[in-house]
Every structure is written in structure tokens, then in C-alpha cells.
Model the fold of this input.
Amino acid sequence: MHRINEQIAAIGIVPVIKLTNPERDAVPLAKALCAGGVAVAEVTFRAAGAERAIRLMKEACPDMLVGAGTVTTTGHIDKALAAGGQFIVTPGFDPELVAYAKEKGVPIYPGCTTPTDYHAALKFGLEVIKFFPAEQSGGLAKIKAMSAPFPQFKVMPTGGISLGNLEAYSACPCICACGGSYMVTAELIENGRWEEITQLCRRSREIVEGARKGMAV
Done:
């Protein structure tokens, strides 16, 4: 497995972040995530200045894994990489974007929810795929069903993940990590509630680790 895939899997949770004011929030947010044991972030291009946020987070926490989410163009990939981004996440499966990311040597996690998506990912030799939107697309039951014909994939469910269902997802052997925004909501970020974000990250890590220990028994 690719080194970055292994690092993300070891953490088990990927905060999905939309920053409307990166100059103010990127650095304290990065520090809050790392303090909570979640040294990884998916910064979405749904907000302007995503590449600036990526750069600021990497500068503040060099050992942190920072990638770009909601990537829909090759231009987004170029901007993310120029800012120091280390992985790419797309909402759906776009062969052009997957091919471009592979050409650039950066891991890409495309959104896949159907057998057709999985077949396409298989042809590109991907190791990890995003299952999005997870809860709305059949959730854990569908992920388990899809893993039967496609056991080679590790899956990153995103969409509807919360503290309430994190344990169930994390206990599934085919899950690489869970993407979520519950620990980085707009309200938490806008009000600078960094300690609360840190605590949510710590709790998330505890849940993931507990689920995985139970799975190993």
C-alpha cells in the first residue's frame, strides 16, 4: 500500500474541512487537529482559497498530511500540489482526473458507489476509494456487499459519518478511514472552538482504535 494510504489508515479518520477564512483559521485548526491525534486534513475546494489553506496548514504543521477535496478539475490538482497537497479526493469517478493524478504521482481517492465505479477504479490500479455520500448511498451494508466482488479495495466512507456510527464503520475490515466534518463544523471553526475540535478528534481516535481492537479479537 502507498505510504500515504498507510498513514491515513493508521489515523482512521479524515476531517473534511471547508475554510472560508484560511488566513485566520488554517493554522489554529491544523494545530487543534494534530493535538487531538488527527494529523490529517482534506481541505475542500468548495471554498475559495483552498490552496492557501493547504499551504498554511503544511507550513504550521509540516508532519501533517494535508490533501485537497471536492476536486473537479485538473487545475484544482495543480493548485493543490503547488501548495504542498499530498492527496486528492474527488466527489465522483472522473477518469481524466484519476489519470492526471497518477501521472503526477499523487494518491487520488475518487467517489465510488456502484459496481461500475469499482470496475473503473480497478482498471486504474487504485488501492483506496472514497464511498460518497456514504449514508445516502446504502451505508455500511452496501460497502460490505461491494467488498465481496472487490476485496482488493480499502474504502473511505464520507457523508453522514458521525460519532454515533464511527465505531460500526471502523470495525469493518475493508474500511481504510472515515471522512467526516462533525469535528470541524462551520460553527466550531467560525467561533474558534479549537479545544472542542481537539477533544472531538481525541474521542474519534479512541472510537476507531477501540473498534479495530474488537475486530482483531
